Amino acid sequence: MKRIFPGYYIVVASCVVQATYLGAFFSFGILFPEFEAEFGWKRETISWAASLNFLIMGISVIFLGRLTDRLGPRWVLALASVIYGLGYLLLSQVNAVWHLYLCFGVLSGISIGAHDVCTLSTVARWFVRRRGLITGIVKSGAGVGQSLMPIGVAILI
After folding, report:
1. Considering the chain, what is the average pLDDT of its residues?
2. What angle do CA 143, 146, 150 make, to 5 degrees?
3. Among the listed residues 92, 85, 83, 86, the one whose alpha carbon sits nearest the alpha carbon of residue 111
4. Mean pLDDT across the stretch 104-133?
5. Major facilitator superfamily (MFS) profile domain spans which residues (predicted)?
6. How many Å apart are CA 2 and CA 143, to the nearest integer?
7. Could you tell me if 4 and 126 are in contact, meaning their C-beta atoms sit under 8 angstroms apart?
8. Distances from the Cα of 77 to the Cα of 5, 80, 97, 157, angstroms
C-alpha cells in the first residue's frame, strides 16, 4: 500500500487554520446588530475595531515572520492562537467601546497575521515543485471559513 506524503497532512491542517482564523474574523460583522442593540453604538464606531485589527495585523506580521524564523511556526501559531482565543473570549465581556478595540482590534490583530505567516511558510518548506498550487489550496481554506463560519455564528446568535 502506498504511503501518503506527510506534506498533505500539513496542507489539510493549514486549510483548517486558515478557515478558522479568517472565518472568525469575517464573522465579526454578524455581531454588529448585537453591539448596536446592546450598547447603542453606531456602526462606524464598531467598524473601527476591524480597521484597527487590520492595522495591527499589518504591523505584527513583520515581527511574526521574524519570530517564526527564530522559534518555528508551531510555537508562534500556538501562542498566536492562545492570544486570538483570549481576544474572542474577552469579547464576550465587553461593556465599553475601548474594550472592543482592545479585544478585537489589538489582541486579535496581533495574532491574526500568524495564520498566514505560519501556514504559508510551512507548506512552502514541504513543497518545492507545486508550491504555487499548494499555496492556493491552503488559501482556499480561508474562503471556506469566510463563507461558512458567519452562517454558523448567525445560527448560534
Report:
1. 92
2. 155
3. 83
4. 91
5. 1-157
6. 31
7. no
8. 23, 5, 28, 28
How far is Cα 148 from Cα 63, in angstroms, rounded to an integer?
Answer: 30
Supply the pTM of this predicted model: 0.85
> Are the beta carbons of 100 and 124 closer than 8 angstroms?
no
Q: Give dist(CA 115, CA 122) in Å, integer.
A: 11
Backbone angles phi, psi at 76, to 5 degrees: -65, -45
The C-alpha cell at 58 is 499589518
Show the cell assigned to 55.
492595522
Domains of the chain: 6-156 (1.20.1250.20)
> Each residue of 61-81: pLDDT tens digit?
999 999 999 999 999 999 999
pLDDT the model gives residue 107: 92
